[in-house]
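User: Some background: our group keeps a shared notebook of sequences we're curious about, and every so often someone picks one and asks for a predicted structure to add to the entry. Today it's my turn. The entry only has the sequence so far, pasted here. Could you supply the structure so I can complete it?
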Amino acid sequence: MDIELVTVDEADKSVLANLVQFYQYDFSEIRDLALTRHGTFTYRYLDPYFTEAGREADFITVDGRLAGFALTRGDVDDDGSWNVAEFFVARGHRRRGVARESARRLFARRPGLWTLSVDHNNRPAAALWRSVIGAVAVGPVAETDRYPPDAAVAGTRFRFWVADAGERPPRPVDTEPAG
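Assistant: Of course. Here's the predicted structure to add to the notebook entry:
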């Protein structure tokens, strides 16, 4: 199985928008996401991935076929960290190691401080991310539970360091960003 991350070009933005609909559909089981009168879900954050620096959109492919996407943002906490904003693997590719390998490759591209948040109602995602983070993190992993109004939804925020081969983190991972 050949798993790759492929940068989404603006010409393929509509393909990503279609995949985001599947992602939102899956989330509608655990969040109150309503369909519009056009039969779609609203996702307001897609355009910035094609207009703002520090945002990256990648397709996940398996054997050259589309299998999902990853959306990441840089310097969210003004500390140089990267954040996994959205991550989706289509149902037909789940439980085959696609998410795990895609996430591992995503982190390996940008050694340094990373963050991501997992909805408390998404237990399978929490188990996946704890496993992946445990495999790639160097040093301690900070887990902070957050609740509205301090977060959009109740969830766990992970902060961890991903190092190049042989590199050690320069400092401990704090539970809150510097500043």
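Suggested note for the entry: The chain has a mean pLDDT of 91. Strands lie at 3-7, 55-62, 65-74, 82-89, 112-119, 142-146, 155-162.
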